[in-house]
Specification:
The chain has helices spanning 3-26, 42-46, 56-65, 115-122, 161-166; strands at residues 40-41, 71-76, 79-84, 98-99, 109-113, 126-128, 135-139, 155-159, 172-173, 179-181, 187-189, 193-198, 203-204. It is an alpha+beta fold. The strands form three sheets. An eight-stranded antiparallel β-sheet has the order 4-9-10-7-5-8-12-13.
């Protein structure tokens, strides 16, 4: 791989990381107007110092190439707007999520985490949503899930979605197929766990 290609890939990753931070967490910090659906005018983002030299085409290319489908772009009149589909810490009143009513539509639901977090989870009430507005769950087995789980997750927790729904927990699906929940008092309880898999050891530990 040539130096120019490596530099281009590195630049795209940096732009995407900064874009993700602003859309999910930093819009208010940078005094950007964000609507109730989470959209920000792209031109206003491009005016930030961090996006010096970045064009509208660069943003479109990042969104098009994003394998996890983390962003949505829409056009209104002559302006383009962008939002993150999930992962916010800032309050988005109408994130355009779809309520899951039938658990059978999602037979395999998982949550990926680290060894450190697993030690906290197994000794507590369950999965805590931390600083984010929702707990993130992926659809399908770890190697098949498109989004909602980090590739380097060491621990995979399988969730009994029907049992959790029947207990009164609300679940929603995002436009990029990530399942989101606020849980109960910020937790997805251990009573909804089916099994837990250690990817590095290649064995089930619960």
């Amino acid at each position: 791989m040539s130096g120019n290609i490596r530099d281009k890939i590195k630049r795209k990753k940096k732009i995407s990381k900064t874009l993700s931070y602003i859309l999910r967490h930093g819009a208010l910090k940078y005094r950007l107007e964000i609507n109730e659906y989470g959209y920000i005018k792209i031109q206003n983002i491009l005016l930030l110092r961090q996006f010096s030299g970045v064009s509208l085409d660069d943003i479109f290319e990042i969104v098009y190439d994003d394998s996890k489908g983390r962003y949505t772009i829409k056009q209104s009149q002559d302006d383009y707007y962008i939002k993150a589909n999930q992962g916010h810490t800032i309050n988005i009143p109408n994130l355009e999520l779809t309520r899951i009513r039938n658990a059978s539509d999602y037979p395999v639901v998982i949550h990926g985490t680290t060894y450190r977090n697993w030690l906290l989870i197994k000794d507590s009430f369950g999965i805590h949503r931390m600083k984010r507005n929702h707990i993130h769950l992926a659809v399908g087995e770890p190697n098949d899930a498109r989004s909602g789980i980090r590739r380097d997750s060491s621990i995979i927790i399988y969730i009994d979605l029907k049992k959790a729904i029947d207990s009164g927990i609300k679940f929603f699906i995002s436009p990029n197929n990530v399942i989101l929940t606020e849980g109960l008092n910020g937790f997805l309880p251990k009573t909804s766990f089916v099994k837990v898999y250690d990817r590095k050891k290649g064995e089930f530990i619960l």
